[in-house]
């Protein structure tokens, strides 16, 4: 029983080659530039049929974004790899696809080498050792008529040769805008340097500042704290998980570890102790609208999954850096512009961690304790989207909880500011550098299949029983009011009633509690998008305006803001799907949760510069009346024989001077 | 430089003996029963003076609760141990002190042996091997005139000899009420078994059920999952901390690890990199009102710090069970009724953990990454309050964040229920057993001293700029509105504006950002107490009605609901202190945060029985403009040389059958 194939396996390099060959054969001799060749997931019906009977054949298909004949219009093709045929292929003149590396590099190069840009740089009168680099940003829509593919290039000055020199600490005060197809320089924006939108027409010589660096090579050995001692994690018996292809078993969990360029890791066909829980759990979208109204910053609104992709931008992870302990890695594949598969090594790491005490009870009459530790399985990736990093993790535990964790880190997006100026739109994080306030609004998509496909979404409010002297003579009672959602839509969280959203299977009753079996969503209550309904920011990311969304399942409705977010003018995802007049009760239903953080770099900002310490957010899915008892009751009790913990001796903990250098 | 003494050191056994001897000498020959002998913390002025000049003498004092001559009235004495004199000693006929073990055991024994109780038990016609035990509960006030000291004894049936037999799975349907002073049985409550308040007058024979057990001895070896492999944490170079007496240094942090019977561990005189941060951070109170109006359950409202104490009920922790890795333990002391000090071993554990990635950035141009891991210092205790456990931890990290984490675990409080009955007040968690809905409302007290004692509390709201076409032509701008709190009071959280409360030092400006140096509170937005203002539940725990409280510092104002909570009729803490008309801006100010969870065991409950998996809550204090840059910029980069991580080989992770037995 070696590698098992599964209909939701990531696309393989062989499959990429087949799909590309089919396309090339079809359109020969016209040249095709490939942007994306990735798995088109099969219809859910087919996957369920296959799970019932594994001899069922499920066709493998690819979703392809491409440009034919150098056309500025992107094409989209759906290719049946198994049957060797192209199912559809059409140009989408109105859609802008995600960024691909080939395109990005061409824009980057065009900007770096354009005489007008070079001429602007000259005006800065930089020291001879300085270099200027640029980050081509996706161009947030501010004009419904715009159809060109635009990139706003933000310029930065690199002041030393270290490969980790922090150019974000030295932003230059101008920003060229390029057409990615013609590679034409359209115009150069001067960046505002004061509180208002006014800009300087003439470039001034650069006012030297010392960049704030994080590069160990620049900081030098003596910069670092010397008293951090090693902490190592060992699993002498090996891991507790089993890997067969992309199928993972761990502590009664079983799931398929999918991966794609857009979403990164995805958990599919998730079960616990043989019972179906979720068909698919994924990070569906993330938008970052900036709250700085000064042109061109009003155009900053990244959709980091739709515009580029958490998979495409995933780092190659390495032992001892990103992952501590006993680690299993998984690879991914993307395509070159000519369709050749390119290996993306170690884009996912998987390992076990000890998260402290999982449960404990002491019989105080005799002091006897039972302790179970909270062993977790962490499946993690790191996406670098230019200046910023997102660490996305799916975390399973032995109490049958599934957590989705996001850590935001990396370098805040910076802009130049005049010395002494403080704007209402951000914080000065270093001399001459400002970081603008922004929001990060994520959406997690949860496709439940709790003991079967037909589920309902229910919300429950805790409300006091008031003024009912017969029922509640002492005024202490509260009750739970339950509402079953019947129609798709956006729904609210209410902290004042501890509102909880649950996925239940109304056909399955828990014998002990008498309630329907279910899982509840531990949501992250967050401020929703602040931009008003008339703004493009809002229209493009309607999903970010409500914390909870419910839709009826349809194949290929995976992305909260729709398939194409780059320069989008409207949300073609939840904004549309949630308006359908259809029943979602006891149906194939999908729950979506929008959460995030308002990153006010001023004044509550933390001066998280140069690199910001992680800001963690965790969404949890927890069983509610799904099991007959605590599902971790059978976890072996914590014991010293296995844990081999050690006592700090009084002397040892005082030997500060013995601290070894790290 | 061995043990250093500090004015905030916990009381020592020698000091206990001295204080007790002073009391005994003073009142001789009258017998004294001691309830509590603990440190009375010195005035803050004295501690600050001592920190300026360590030759300053700060008197050591004890706070003593006692009963003289067997009086039902508790006395309170303040004893100056250093000067050898009793400063005050008075009877408090109107206050009920916390439970002490001596008293608890006497009530327990009186209930177990009372002929009327035995006669009730007989009516249950239990099998000969069964035993009945009782949990004396503090008696929640339902009558303002009551002055007796009452305990409500909840009765449970123990069906096997295992020391961890789960009697909470078999509650008996009656509950005697005792006077703790006279040990008189006052009455016996019959417990309601249906949805309404009606009870059965005649005891019926017990209807046999199988208890739901967590005891490994009862479950047997074959019950446990077999595939959990060992995970061990080693620190071959020893810990990164230094301990001198109760003074701890770790990664630029320095603090005094205080401890007392009421609060358990307390962090005092906390500094980072030599700069003062907090004078004192502590868990101040916790109340658990139950939402079940059926008598006698309406009386269930524990104040687990004031009624008993997180220190007093702290477990003795042990290597490999409660703590994984390289561990340092600290002891505490309580007194016997005769005043003898009793050692409470290992009531605090301290160790380092790796919490994943602390920050990361990859230069996507060349793939070069810097990763810093999130090393944390965890200071933890476990309090067992009869059926329930609270795991309280203070967690420090290298980015200068201070986290206060609570894990709720243990066994939910149970009551008998008729077969087939489902009440609106809780969930049936096992046959014949219900767990009532309740709230856990904690209060954390934060006494800031950010670069000095005079600080202010400010809250900030993020609000969109709307309808200002000149300032915000594209409708994307948002700004931060800041309000400085001038008067004490209770304040609200507003998620829709991402409201954040900050402690700042208005006299110290961050040179980079131009803002006042500060720390912000990452609050836990929670539903506040649901019981109405007319209820005793509310009156006793006014602190639980608002998430944020601000007061001006006064010595000995430490406990959110006041000093005496047992059978209290009103909140004598924040309810009073927050009404004083005094300035709190740029003053010695204290910030209090109430948070918690509404534990709806039905219907969103998780069937967390027999022992519930931890429910985690974390409050964080994070720097905001306090430092010039990310304070963890100087943490050595993560590297394999130190971390010694290992790769899971394909073969290894598939060898499921090799799983060793645990």
From TrEMBL, chains A, B:
The modification 2',4',5'-topaquinone is found at residue 388. Topaquinone (TPQ) is generated by copper-dependent autoxidation of a specific tyrosyl residue. GO terms for biological process: amine metabolic process. Contains 1 topaquinone per subunit. Its cofactor is Cu cation. InterPro entries: Cu_Am_ox_TPQ-bd, Cu_amine_oxidase, Cu_amine_oxidase_C, Cu_amine_oxidase_C_sf, Cu_amine_oxidase_N-reg, Cu_amine_oxidase_N2. Residues 232-632 form the Copper amine oxidase catalytic domain. Keywords: Copper, Disulfide bond, Metal-binding, Oxidoreductase, TPQ. It holds the Pfam family Cu_amine_oxid. GO terms for molecular function: copper ion binding; primary methylamine oxidase activity; quinone binding. Its EC number is 1.4.3.-. Gene3D superfamilies: 3.10.450.40, Copper amine oxidase, catalytic domain. The active site is at residues 304, 388. Residues 6-86 form the Copper amine oxidase N2-terminal domain. Homodimer. Belongs to the copper/topaquinone oxidase family. This is Amine oxidase. It comes from Melanomma pulvis-pyrius CBS 109.77. The lineage of its organism: Eukaryota, Fungi, Dikarya, Ascomycota, Pezizomycotina.
């Amino acid at each position: 029983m070696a590698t098992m194939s599964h209909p939701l396996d990531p696309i393989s390099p062989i499959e990429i080659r087949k799909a590309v060959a089919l396309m090339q054969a079809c359109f020969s001799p016209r040249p095709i530039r490939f942007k994306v060749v990735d798995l088109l997931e099969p219809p859910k019906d087919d996957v369920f049929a296959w799970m019932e009977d594994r001899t069922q054949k499920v066709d493998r298909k690819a979703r392809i974004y491409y440009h034919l004949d150098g056309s500025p219009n992107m094409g989209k093709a759906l290719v049946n790899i198994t049957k060797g045929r192209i199912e559809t292929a059409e140009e989408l003149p109105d859609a802008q696809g995600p960024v691909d590396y080939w395109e990005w590099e061409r824009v980057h190069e065009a900007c770096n080498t354009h005489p007008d840009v070079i001429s602007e740089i000259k005006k800065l009168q930089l020291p001879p050792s300085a270099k200027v680099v640029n980050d081509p940003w996706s161009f947030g829509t501010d004009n419904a008529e715009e159809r060109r593919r635009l990139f706003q290039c933000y310029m930065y000055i690199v002041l030393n040769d270290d490969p980790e020199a922090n150019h974000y600490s030295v932003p230059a005060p101008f920003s060229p805008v390029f057409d990615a197809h013609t590679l034409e320089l359209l115009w150069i924006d001067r960046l505002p340097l004061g509180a208002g939108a006014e800009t300087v027409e003439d470039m001034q010589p650069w006012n030297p500042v010392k960049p704030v660096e994080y590069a160990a090579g620049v900081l030098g050995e003596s910069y670092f704290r010397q008293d951090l001692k090693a902490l190592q994690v060992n699993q002498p018996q090996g891991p507790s998980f089993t890997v067969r292809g992309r199928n993972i078993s761990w502590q009664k969990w079983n799931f398929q570890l999918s991966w794609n360029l857009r979403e990164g890791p995805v958990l599919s066909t998730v079960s616990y102790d043989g019972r179906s829980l979720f068909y698919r759990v994924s990070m569906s979208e993330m938008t970052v609208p900036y709250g700085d109204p000064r042109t061109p910053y009003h155009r900053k609104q990244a959709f980091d999954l739709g515009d580029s992709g958490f998979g495409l931008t995933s780092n190659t992870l390495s032992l001892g850096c990103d992952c501590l302990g006993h680690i299993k890695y998984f690879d991914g594949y993307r395509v070159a512009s000519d369709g050749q598969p390119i290996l993306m090594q170690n884009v996912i790491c998987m390992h076990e961690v000890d998260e402290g005490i999982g449960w404990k009870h002491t019989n105080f009459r005799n002091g006897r304790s039972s302790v179970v530790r909270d062993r977790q399985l962490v499946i993690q990736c790191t996406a670098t989207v230019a200046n910023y990093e997102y660490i996305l993790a799916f975390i399973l535990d032995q109490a049958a909880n599934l957590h989705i964790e996001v850590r935001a880190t990396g370098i805040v997006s910076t802009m130049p500011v005049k010395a002494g100026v403080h704007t209402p739109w951000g914080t000065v994080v270093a001399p001459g550098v400002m970081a603008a306030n922004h929001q990060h609004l994520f959406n997690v998509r949860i496709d439940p299949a709790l003991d079967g496909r037909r589920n309902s979404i229910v919300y429950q409010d805790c409300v006091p029983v008031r003024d009912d002297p017969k029922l509640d003579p002492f005024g202490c009672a509260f009750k739970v009011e339950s509402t079953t959602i019947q129609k798709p839509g956006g729904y609210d969280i209410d902290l004042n009633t501890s509102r909880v959203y649950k996925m239940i299977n109304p056909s399955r009753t828990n014998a002990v509690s008498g309630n329907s079996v279910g899982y509840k969503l531990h949501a992250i209550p967050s401020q929703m998008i602040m931009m008003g309904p008339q703004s493009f920011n809002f229209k493009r990311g309607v999903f970010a305006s409500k914390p909870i969304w419910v839709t009826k399942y349809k194949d290929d409705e995976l992305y909260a803001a729709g398939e194409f977010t780059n320069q989008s003018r409207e949300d073609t995802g939840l904004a549309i799907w949630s308006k359908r007049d259809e029943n979602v009760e006891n149906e194939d239903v999908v729950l979506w949760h929008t959460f995030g953080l308002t990153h006010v770099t001023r004044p509550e900002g933390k001066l998280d510069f140069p690199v910001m310490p992680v800001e963690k957010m965790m969404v949890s899915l927890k069983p509610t009346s799904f099991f007959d008892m605590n599902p971790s009751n059978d976890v072996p009790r914590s014991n010293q024989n296995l844990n081999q913990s050690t006592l700090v001796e009084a002397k040892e903990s005082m030997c500060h001077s013995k601290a070894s250098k790290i």
